Amino acid sequence: MISAGGGPAEVFVGRRAELQRLEGEWRSVCSGRPRVVWVEGASGMGKSALVRRFLSGAGAFVLRVSGDAGEVSLRYGLVAQVAARMPDGGRSGLPLLAPSGGPPAEADPLAVGAEMLAAFGTLKGSAPVVVVLEDFHWSDRVSSRALLFAARRLQREPVLMLVTCRTVDGSESEDGWRRLASDPESGCRMEMAGLGAPELCRLSEALGLGQLPITVAERLQRHTAGHPLYARAVLEELGPRSLALTTGRLPVPGTLASVVVSRLAGLSQPARDLAAAAAVLGEHSPLPLVSGVAGLTDASAAVEELKAARLLDEAAGGAAGSVAFAHPLIRAAVYGDLPATRRMALHARAAALVGGRGALAHRVAAAGVPDESLAAELDSAAEAAESQGAWEQAQEWFVWGAELSLRPEDRDRRTLAAAQALLTAGDVPRVNAMRPLIAACGTGARRDHVLGWLAWFDGDPSEAAARASDCLWAAEASGEGALCSAAAALLSMARFTQGRSGEAAALARTALEGHPLAPFASRAARYALVLGLAADGQFGAARAAADTLVQRAPRMQRGDALAARGLLLATCDDPQAARADLEEVVRRRREGLPVGPLVAAHAYLGEACFRVGDWAAAQDHAAMAVPQAADADRAWCVAPASAIACWIQAARARFALAEEHVHASKAAAARFPFWGGLSTACAAESFLAQMRGQPERAAAALEPLRTGSVRGLLDALGRLRWRALYAEAMLSMGRLDDAEVMLGEIEDGLPAAPVNGVPLDAIRLRARLEWSRGHADLAEACFRSGLALGVGLMAPFEVARLELELGRLLRESGDRRAALAPLRAARQRLAALGADPLLALCDVQLAACGLRRATPGPANPFDLSPTERSITRLVAKGLTNREIGAEPFVSAKTVEYHLGRIFTKLGVGSRRELRTRVLSAPPDPDWAG
Fold first, then answer.
1. Residue among 137, 106, 122 nearest 61 (CA)
2. Fewer Cβ close by (within 10 Å): the C or N end of the chain?
3. Phi/psi class of residue 89: alpha, beta or left (left: φ > 0; alpha: ψ in -120 to 50)?
4. Are 488 and 510 in contact (CB under 8 A)?
5. 124 near 61, Cβ under 8 Å?
6. Where on the phi/psi map is residue 125: left (φ > 0), alpha (ψ -120 to 50), or beta?
7. pLDDT at 88
8. What gap in Å lies between CA 69 and CA 285, rounded to an integer?
9. Angstrom distance (rounded) from CA 145 to CA 110
């Protein structure tokens, strides 16, 4: 266990179980399993000492960085440290990590995380690496999110991520790390407890204080809870002999502060002055600056005195070095013991010596009374920080300005500006933490604006609409144009989710044509405009608006505009056009594209790929969208992302996984009441039931769409697929009249120029209905008309279903020979897609025609896992390992590992051989008579 004093008196006792656990995790890393270890404990519990002792025997390449109290508001401060310590070439080809100062402030954390993952895959080749993130409670939030994104996706990289954090009320990002480390598949979580009595005995001996009787050690352990820092302070203060002679309750200081103050009081005045100055400046500071604040011309003797008392440690050595407190608690004790007037005077002196922006914090601390002039300076600094994208720093300065405000209205204005800065940064949890301050502000438009966005992120569009409406009315009355635009953007999205589409589009247009908006508000308005017009039945106007947004968007906002148009096209069932836009959005993600469009782009790109028959790509994108939506806590994205993932898994008979996606989609739709999320969840559950042969459940799942207000909105968008699912269920249940009604509604709503497979489904269902009524000739004619139409559509799944049904009709009508051609064609399409439920039905029909398999090999002849199949497909396209790693957010090292397994399974020795083998292989064994 590390001593309280640090430096040359550092000792280590105990922690055998913790060290053994770390060594076990390290062995796993060396065998090719990346691990994440979260070490948590109270201040002074010995986390850093444990890490140092472990690393001294690991023999690993170590990349070590640390959070800092002064850099919590510095966006990507911790990521910049990690990148700067990477070996030469580690950041090559990674534009967000390449700048020496770290990623740009506006970069999206998940995009930065993807580059961190790629960089980790290149560290020291194949040698194991330890990435140490110390004092993580002082990490900036965007760095935490980016690093967590990378940590979650480590697969084969020999990397141990070792994170230390104080036990505090965890932030949302820290909770994510705790959950990751608590999963035995990914790592472990270690909570540092106090030392036991035997370890306190060894501590006494290691400190050179002599033997401590076990009974005395037990009493000491009870009174200090085994806290190493407290226990050492008591041992050094009283000594084992005095402790043994004391009867009754041990005279242990109530807090470490009293020990520190007592120890400090015995020092010379220069030493006390130097300690006070150091406490005012922070936990570690340059020695010349500390000396200047203390008013000492030669501080060397004072430093040595404080080091001997184990209060201060000279970190860099020499008169020009820096000094640091042995522990943050010691600095807090010294600072807390300073009289208010002296503390303020020292801060004022520090402000004069530090100068520039760094002096602001000291000037604030030196201000004993409200100071409007200083508050105005803080306003200017905050506004400058906002212009540079440093929103967390702006928030801090606005909060300080609020504390210095003379008038309540100025305090409220600055408090709300601080909340707005955090909203712009996307840091909703910290805005939630400010709720008491926001609620204490006087009523007004700005307060309603902030509370409205909080309601939106809470999943309460009704409250968001009410707040936004009040804000908009008040802002219009007072002539605050910028606030009018912001309120209109919020209200537009709230109205869209409530189904008031025309109003949403009008409000969105007002917002976009008014004053410049914050990125998150601008994005919301774009979606509300385009999708609102479409849901209002104005598809032509919606498409024109989307085209205009794309044409006029600045470079950094083009991804937003493309995502809005891609979602419009996907929502309105034009999968080929949607795919083109959304693929460009995904390609641009490494340019710092915000997370909202990226998550939605992957989700709806998965749907588009599914509709056009590229199920491998569909599965890849769905597999990325679902965890990204959860990582970003975007409830409105979770519902459609999970629903789309369900369609893909259900169509391939992976029913258990599809069921999980259905539950996730329905839960997200319930948490965030939005008709779009509800419709996708219901349709996904119905399709799963259809693939499982459960028509009753398939029909029941769609009842909310048949009877609720959602029906009209889906009609306006031209979404007819849910009706096809319902008609299919009615036919399977023998309810022909109900199927007729629903089928008529589908046929009435079909576009003149079909761009998707719904018309083919309508024709197939009409044929089934006629067949069920005994009109076999009419049914056959319908099937053949559908196949003729399918020649011009990219809809292989729907075409295969037509072929399968036609073959079944011909076989059951007694014409087995005629049935063979459509059944063979259907099987080839279904095998290429991997549509196992329908493939099984097709096999039954072919067997009934007297056919057998020529070769009984598996449908997946190479026996590749889903990940291996995905990587094989990308290699066949000619992509490099790094390019492949960029697709599913894995590193090049993981791709290399999977390629080795693929080469072994397929018996090839090069990428060229692999491409030749894959491209020449048939999708499935042929059928023969």
1. 122
2. C
3. left
4. yes
5. yes
6. left
7. 65
8. 12
9. 7
SS (H, E, C) 519-582: HHHHHHHHHHHHHHHHHCCCHHHHHHHHHHHHHHCCHHHHHHHHHHHHHHHHHCCCHHHHHHHH
Distance CA 822, CA 799 (A): 10
Buried-exposed string 275-294: b where 16+ CB fall within 10 A, e elsewhere: bbbbbbbbbbbebebbbbbb
Token pair of 599, please?
Answer: 């998550």
> In this structure, what are the phi and psi dihedrals at residue 6, rounded to the nearest 5 degrees?
70, -170
In angstroms, the CA 683 to CA 681 distance is 6
Q: Which amino acid is at 806?
A: L
Let me know if 707 is exposed, middle or buried by CB neighbors in 10 A (0-12, 13-18, 19+). Answer: exposed
Query: CA-CA distances (angstroms) from residue 144 to 19, 419, 712?
Result: 25, 20, 43
Distance between CA 160 and CA 147 in Å, rounded?
Answer: 13
Strands 284-286 and 322-325: antiparallel
Residue 28, judged by CB atoms within 10 A of its CB (0-12, 13-18, 19+), counts as middle
Q: So what's the pLDDT on residue 401?
A: 92
Q: What's the confidence (pLDDT) of residue 926? A: 36
pLDDT of residue 245: 62
For the chain, residues with pLDDT lower than 50 are 1-8, 252, 254, 316-319, 854-859, 888, 923-929
Rounded CA-CA distance 873/877 in Å is 7
Element (H, E) at 917: helix 911-920
Which among 901, 794, 866, 880 has a CA at the least distance from the CA of 619?
866
Nearest-angstrom CA–CA distance, 467 and 444: 10
Asked if 529 and 509 count as a contact pair (C-beta separation under 8 A), the reply is yes
3-class DSSP assignment, residue 65: strand
Query: 274 and 294 in contact (C-beta within 8 Å)?
Result: yes
Q: Pull the structure tokens for residue 83.
A: 């990148």
- DSSP class of residue 268 equals -
Euclidean distance between CA atoms 52 and 286, whole angstroms: 24
Q: Which helix (H) or strand (E) holds 607?
A: helix 595-612
Q: Is 777 helix (H, G, I), strand (E, B) or coil?
A: helix
Burial class (CB in 10 A: 0-12, 13-18, 19+), 185: exposed
Q: What would you measure as the largest C-alpha separation in the chain, in angstroms?
A: 109
List strands edge to edge, sheet with 284-286: 284-286, 322-325, 312-314
Structure tokens given for 473: 């009315």
pLDDT confidence of residue 186:
85
**DSSP character at residue 890:** -
Length, in residues, of the chain: 929
Residue with tokens 């954390």: 109
Q: For residue 734, with 0-12 CB atoms within 10 Å meaning exposed, 13-18 middle and 19 or more buried, which class applies?
A: exposed
The answer to pTM > 0.90 is: no
Q: In the prediction, which pLDDT does 889 show?
A: 52
Please check whether residue 230 is in contact with residue 201, taking contact to mean a CB–CB distance below 8 angstroms.
no
Compute the distance between CA of residue 846 and CA of residue 167 in angstroms, rounded to an integer.
Answer: 65
- Eight-class DSSP state of 61: E
Q: DSSP label at 928?
A: E
Cα 787 to chain center, whole Å? Answer: 44
Determine the 3-state secondary structure of 635 from DSSP.
helix
**869: enclosing H helix or E strand:** helix 866-876
The strand pair at 129-134 and 61-66 is best described as: parallel
Q: What share of the chain is helix, strand, coil (3-state, %, to 5)?
A: 70, 5, 25
First to last CA, the chain: 77
Q: How far is CA 710 from CA 571, 687, 706, in A?
A: 14, 18, 8
For residue 538, what are its two tokens? 């104005």
Distance CA 866, CA 140 (A): 36
228, 45 Cβ separation under 8 angstroms: yes
Report which DSSP code applies to 925.
P
Residue 436 burial class via C-beta count within 10 angstroms: exposed 0-12, middle 13-18, buried 19 and up: exposed
